[in-house]
From TrEMBL:
Taxonomic placement: Bacteria, Bacillati, Bacillota, Bacilli, Bacillales
Listed name of the protein: Transposase
Record organism: Virgibacillus necropolis
A molecular-function term among this protein's GO annotations: DNA binding
Keywords carried by this UniProt record: DNA-binding
Keyword check for Flavoprotein: no
Signal sequence range: none
Domain of life (superkingdom): Bacteria
Domain named Cas12f1-like TNB: residues: 24-89
Length: 103
């Protein structure tokens, strides 16, 4: 998962309500607990450009927070913004563990 700095994010009044509503901190604590309990490992990755970079070709596609679809003119990839970010986060996390993503 992204290693988001929740304390800093709630200072942004545009993001604060969403973050509190999502119970983000509680979710992260539960996920850590579940991973530890089941022999897994929660990998935290730096959140830099996870939603900007194309998960297919790594081309950086700048977009504001309100743009919810990732459209890469470089390779033609079109994905939901969060799906694109999730693929990038998975790749970085696996890389941190010395593993490679499966197709
Ligand atoms: Zn691309």
């Amino acid at each position: 998962m992204e290693d988001l700095k929740i304390k800093n994010m709630v200072k942004n009044r545009h993001l604060a309500k969403s973050i509190h509503d999502a119970g983000w901190g509680a979710f992260r604590r539960m996920l850590t607990y579940k991973c530890n309990r089941n022999g897994g490992k929660l990998v935290k990755v730096k959140p830099h450009f996870t939603s900007q970079d194309c998960s297919n070709c790594h081309h950086r596609v700048k977009k504001s927070l309100s743009v919810r679809t990732h459209v890469c003119k470089h390779c033609g990839t079109v994905l939901d913004r969060d799906h694109n970010a999730a693929i990038n986060i998975e790749k970085v996390g696996l890389n941190q563990l010395g593993l490679t993503p499966t197709a």
